[in-house]
């Protein structure tokens, strides 16, 4: 492969590309890369997630220059960042709210994939890599939240690490290993800092794999049918670079609204109280992006089964491509699926709400009901719909519905050919 | 695998040869080596000997009145020391063992009936239950109540209702004299 490569460029660029063919590679994958021409704004969130990762890494690295991972100094060093470090308040608020926005973007990205069947053959591995990224993000976010060493940091870390004590036989041993002591303490804080710095780069590596898998078969699209040729595709640049840039502008406006006008809206006041191992705050809740999973944990009255259900709620996504047996990808053509899908969206929002409420009264049965539907959607409804649902007829090509709607001659249906 | 010049060596049979043995032995040594190198990287996360050193703490019991409790620190964990009233002792002993999620008679959890000493960490997910101060709720069974996920403990520190799977554990302790207890 190596010796017969012929660079398409000339001059200095050609000299360099001949020795380092990465320029050609980037051109093929970012510029000429053929993309379905009917992608909507729902397809913006992948690139937005990538940008959010970059924002988190850049702000995180500069924060690490001022932070001290020690139980006696962590809280103080964060306050020093807020008060003394030049623009420290901006960097920290960007990092804090950036985490929330990263999750917002990724959740929309996931639900877009769920609706348009982006997980289906041949994109199962692409989807699975995405679920791995989600898990890594959750681990990173959880450990990052521990670092300011406030009350919520400390007790959140205590509750989450105690999840592992539910494992039979070796559970206690594992939690002690995670803590490096008999409770969450300084050894825990220091290792969480080391891992919180490492994991984003692991995420970046898996993102590269995610993109390799994506570019193998190209993006899915709102119709869920494969492009039939050049007339169904447009080059990534400038068409989608400009669309993604517009989306980025909207994203940055929304992020700025929070950073500058409500920087602590998505946080907890309790985390501005230094960690106290003797006082549990009366109402411990995780960050909002973990609430649906927290609700699933609490919905089950048994400790081990609760933990199993919580991890299972993500694990089920790995096998989703084989649970949904319908050959039709896009929810657009699946009238019954569509209803269950929107019910799932409402269900996850309800789970998030229940997760934020105290575990009493109406919230307990509601949480159980919502948990039951969450699992039923993946384990019962999708497999059955694949058998019993009759999907609407699919268009012959991506161009067809557009050309029809645009008042083109009636004969243009099956073989549109005059579009580049 | 066995089709090289070495096959048919003495005692080799048709399936095994000296080369197979070398493969396996090399692989096994490699695995042992990787394991030996990996262990320090795993074990560094375990509590160090300094942390593990069995610390003991002496607690002065004289200021505690019946019906009150204090929280002592032992091995970086909170320990509840409560002086129970006669009523609480009777209540704890009157419970049918079948009614308990983690059946244990009250007699097995105390050395002196009036002094209940338990590790104050909810066995569900590690929060500190409320109820050791007079101002705090004691739950539906008059012991402790964990606000995180709603576990109720009775005056013997036994789980009665909620997601916690086990009773509050009883640490090792001994009475030094009438008003001093040594934890650990």
Unreliable stretches covering 5 or more consecutive residues of chain B: none
Q: Judging by the overall fold, what is the CATH architecture of the largest domain in chain B?
A: 3-layer Sandwich
Total of DSSP H or I helical runs spanning 4+ residues of chain A: 15
Molecular shape of chain A: globular
Order of helices and strands of chain B: HHEEEHEEEEEE
Helix amount of chain A, in percent?
55-70%
First-to-last CA distance of chain A:
31 Å
E-strand count of chain B: 9
Q: Give me the CATH superfamily of the largest domain in chain A.
A: Cytochrome Bc1 Complex, Chain C
Q: Given the C-alpha coordinates, what overall shape of chain B results? A: elongated
Span of the ends, CA to CA of chain B:
60 Å
Integer-rounded radius of gyration of chain A = 24 Å
Query: Structural class, judged by helices and strands of chain A?
Result: mainly alpha
Strand order of the largest sheet of chain B: 1-9-8
The CATH topology of the largest domain in chain A:
Cytochrome Bc1 Complex, Chain C
Task: Provide the CATH top-level class of the largest domain in chain A.
Answer: Mainly Alpha
Oligomer: heterodimer
CATH architecture of the largest domain in chain A: Up-down Bundle
């Amino acid at each position: 492969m190596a010796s017969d490569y012929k660079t398409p460029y000339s001059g200095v660029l050609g000299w360099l590309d001949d020795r380092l063919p990465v320029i050609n590679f980037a051109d093929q994958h970012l510029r000429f890369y053929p993309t379905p021409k009917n992608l909507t704004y729902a397809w913006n969130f992948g690139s937005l997630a990538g940008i959010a990762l970059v924002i988190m890494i850049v702000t995180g690295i500069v924060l690490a220059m001022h932070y001290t991972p020690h139980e006696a100094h962590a809280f103080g060093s964060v306050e020093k960042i807020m008060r003394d470090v030049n623009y420290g308040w901006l960097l920290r608020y960007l990092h804090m709210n950036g985490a929330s926005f990263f999750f917002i973007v990724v959740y929309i990205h996931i639900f877009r994939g769920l609706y348009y069947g982006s997980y289906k053959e041949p994109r199962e591995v692409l989807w699975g890599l995405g679920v791995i990224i989600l898990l890594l993000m959750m681990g990173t976010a959880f450990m990052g939240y521990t670092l300011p060493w406030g009350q919520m940091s400390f007790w959140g870390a205590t509750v989450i690490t105690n999840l592992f004590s539910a494992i039979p036989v070796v559970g206690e041993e594992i939690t002690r290993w995670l803590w490096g002591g008999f409770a969450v303490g300084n050894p825990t804080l220091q290792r969480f800092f080391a891992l919180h710095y490492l994991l984003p780069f692991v995420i970046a590596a898996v993102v590269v794999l995610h993109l390799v898998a994506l570019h193998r078969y190209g993006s899915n699209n709102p119709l869920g049918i494969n492009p039939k040729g050049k007339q169904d595709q447009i080059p990534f640049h400038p068409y989608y670079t400009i669309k993604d840039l517009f989306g980025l502008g909207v994203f940055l406006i929304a992020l700025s609204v929070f950073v500058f006008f409500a920087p602590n809206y998505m946080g907890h006041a309790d985390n501005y109280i230094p960690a106290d191992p003797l006082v549990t705050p009366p109402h411990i809740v995780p960050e909002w992006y973990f609430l649906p999973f927290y609700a699933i944990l609490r919905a089950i009255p048994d400790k081990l089964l609760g933990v199993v259900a919580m991890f299972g709620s993500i694990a089920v996504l790995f096998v989703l491509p084989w649970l949904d047996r319908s050959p039709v990808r896009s929810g657009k053509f699946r009238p019954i699926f569509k209803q269950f899908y929107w019910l799932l969206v409402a269900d996850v929002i309800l789970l998030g709400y229940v997760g934020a409420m105290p575990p009493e009264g109406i919230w307990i049965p509601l949480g159980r009901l919502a948990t039951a539907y969450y699992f039923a959607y993946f384990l019962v409804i999708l497999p059955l719909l694949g058998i019993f649902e009759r999907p609407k007829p699919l268009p012959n090509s991506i161009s067809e519905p557009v050309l029809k709607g645009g008042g083109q001659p009636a004969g243009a249906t099956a073989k549109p050919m005059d579009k580049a | 695998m066995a089709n090289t010049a070495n096959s048919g060596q003495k005692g080799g049979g048709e399936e095994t040869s000296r080369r197979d043995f070398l493969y396996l032995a090399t692989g096994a040594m490699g695995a042992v080596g990787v394991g030996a190198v990996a262990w320090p990287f795993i074990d560094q996360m375990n509590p160090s000997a300094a942390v593990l050193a069995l610390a003991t703490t002496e607690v002065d019991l004289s200021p505690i009145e019946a019906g009150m409790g204090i929280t002592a620190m032992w091995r970086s964990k909170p320990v509840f020391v409560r002086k129970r009233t006669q009523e609480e002792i009777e209540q704890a002993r009157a419970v049918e063992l079948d009614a308990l999620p983690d059946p244990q008679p009250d007699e097995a959890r105390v050395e002196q009936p009036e002094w209940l000493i338990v590790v104050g960490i909810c066995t569900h997910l590690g929060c500190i239950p409320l109820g050791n101060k007079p101002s705090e709720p004691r739950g539906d069974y008059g012991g402790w109540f964990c606000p995180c996920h709603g576990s109720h403990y009775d005056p013997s520190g036994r789980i009665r209702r909620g997601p916690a799977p086990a009773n509050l554990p009883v640490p090792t302790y001994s009475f030094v004299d009438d008003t001093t207890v040594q934890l650990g």
